[in-house]
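Honest question from a wet-lab person: if I give you the sequences of every part of a complex, can you actually get the arrangement of the whole thing, not just the pieces? Trying it with mine:
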Amino acid sequence: MTAQGADVPEGDGQTTARTAASPGASNGADANGTSIAVPAARERARSIPEAAVARLAVYLRALSALAEQDITTVSSEELATAAGVNSAKLRKDLSYIGSYGTRGVGYEVEVLIGQIERTLGLTRKHSVAVVGIGNLGHALANYGGFPGRGFPVSALFDLDDDLVGVPVGGIPVSHIDDIVEVCSEREVTIGVIATPTQGAQEVCDRLVAGGVMCILNFAPIVLQVPEHVEVRKVDLAVEMQILSFHVARRQQEAANAVDGAASDGGPPGGGAGLPGEIDSANRMVERL
Amino acid sequence: MTAQGADVPEGDGQTTARTAASPGASNGADANGTSIAVPAARERARSIPEAAVARLAVYLRALSALAEQDITTVSSEELATAAGVNSAKLRKDLSYIGSYGTRGVGYEVEVLIGQIERTLGLTRKHSVAVVGIGNLGHALANYGGFPGRGFPVSALFDLDDDLVGVPVGGIPVSHIDDIVEVCSEREVTIGVIATPTQGAQEVCDRLVAGGVMCILNFAPIVLQVPEHVEVRKVDLAVEMQILSFHVARRQQEAANAVDGAASDGGPPGGGAGLPGEIDSANRMVERL
DNA sequence: TGATGTGAATAGTTTCACAGCC
DNA sequence: GGCTGTGAAACTATTCACATCA
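Yes, you can. This is the full assembly:
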């Protein structure tokens, strides 16, 4: 996972920085005149734990699947199973956004979908720009306008002049030099960096200059961004290495069966022979 | 980010399941005869917090970059900055794998690299199979044998007969029906699922049957796997939605400026001219 | 003197278990 | 009877702060 924040504070494995939000009293009831303009719809909505936010997105997908099957009601148990969590956690997570269930019955699928969407800010459209139209960039650009709701890809950028002007996934590629202009013009809020490591910080700076507020970074580099910009990182190498760690741990555990009584509850299946060990220099060739 | 586990327990945001490891005494000193075969190299190595494991991979990259610049020593402060964490956390993380620093001086880059690689199990090669050679699959197959050390891609699979046999990134694509056979033959330990949602569970089952121990899943579905298989999920939609949440939160916070006395302890940092006030609608366009 | 390594304090997250309501 | 919502307990992770040592 791997956090990625401006500088100091962090949350879970992969998380955006700071925690903000003054603890004390909630910011709800501030009966003042100006509230007229604001429909009083989304008030509190703070203080939702980072970890819970991530899971809300997962619940949302599970709920959408249910809705498609014309299922109108779910229990926390059912939804939890579909989302791969336990029901206590699910109920707790949902409690952060309000009480929309019915005791003894469950949740109304449509209602929950609406509430989660509201909480995640999905009622507003977020234009996406993808920078770096290589293999990964293509994949992202063709990602069906981004799954589900409001993430239309509205700009693509690359360095390569042969690519500029060519439409990918219906949108013509612009040159990287025009990031600032195009992004502010098309009101891009989310930038996706799919460039090689070298260009990433430069691209990031331009996206920020173009008014982008969030960045999803596939380049294996820690980006420097101003405080008001949110960064999330997806790092394939890190994911693989975490998996590697778990394999190693498991094998080591298995090896510790040298000790144990017969059945120590360990991994019975799997088996297979383990190769020996390698060992060498190790070079770091980044690519993308 | 979203956990993904067989059924119940989970860790941080994105984590593999169970915690295993008996707490009590470490498994170190078990002076028995069979220890001859085992070089007594990697013994304990348990009990490293999930979150720390993820960061070790990040430190490793930062260290590799330093090594390439022929830098031989780093302080926790420097390395922490490079990795985007604070130094206390870094020192704590490193302390889980042992004491390899020198007080008053710092860490030797090469030594740390070696120790982290050992801890992450990178001294063993992990063959990778990629299933689903679409846009994303191509990107993954061409990922340069996977960044850095030991993750050679050694098998590719797709459903499409037009693709079977065609080499991608130097490796010919095999048919999905041959997953079990090919994977066990080539001793694949890590499977990457880059298929559409529909096929994902089926593919997963075959990978498992083929002896794969870890799965990196790009399909937006919660996979069912036996206990001994580790799954990690990368979900673009979830990432985007988390970002969306943060935008929404920030805008909502800005809107709450309706209230505030002048300085309510909000983000004072940033310094610089920073955008002063925001109008009702509130747009966040930073210029340069 | 300067930086590591780590116990103790704090913060965040998950799980338990049960009151409350349908 | 069944299921939600939620305090409180348990657990995990981060930060502090300082003893320790080269």
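Two things worth pointing out. Confidence is low (pLDDT under 50) at residues 1-13, 15-45, 261-288 of chain B. The beta strands of chain B are 73-74, 101-102, 106-108, 127-131, 153-158, 167-168, 171-175, 188-193, 214-217, 230-233.
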